[in-house]
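Take a sample.
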Amino acid sequence: MPFLLHLMRHGEPELAGRLLGHTDCAGTPAGIGACFARASGLEVEHIVTSDLRRAIACAAGAAALAGITPVADPRWRELNFGAWDGLTADEVDSAALGRFWDDPDANPPPGGERWSALVARVADAIEELAERPTLVVTHAGAIRATLAVLCGFEQRQLWAFDLPYAAVLTLRIWREPTPTAQIVRLSP
């Protein structure tokens, strides 16, 4: 039986414009409000969130609307940018950053995470989702990893998805015979 999975990117963070990865900063009031507004029309029975503050605050607003308690799961975190975490793109060596964007698995950030590691942890998190309408409040990288796992998109194709803050991507998920998904809606 298929179920809906709503993937929401957290609202604008206080440190917007940086490679935030595992940097744990708060969301702005406007960013949290945008997520609250997006969540108001979603059918959800369960809410999961990244364990980073910028996602938790957005999930809390959505959970209040639905009358349920969100569950934090660190597997839904953004890619770990290692030594680049918290820096702007201008503060990172442009050649190294270019190699990363070209092939993030072969050229991870120094001390950071490979793309395949992000995909693996998101795949584990997806496997544990119950088959009921679920909202996951997470990050752009984790949303792209979900598309790789469930829809088979290649890494280069995933950069074509515009995922602004507070965007919601809704997927219809089938578990059998192998996990697959159909994109139902993208609300940027």
Q: What stands out?
A: The beta strands are 3-9, 46-49, 71-72, 134-138, 168-174, 180-187. The CA atoms of residues 24 and 52 lie 5 Å apart. The two ends are 28 Å apart (CA to CA).
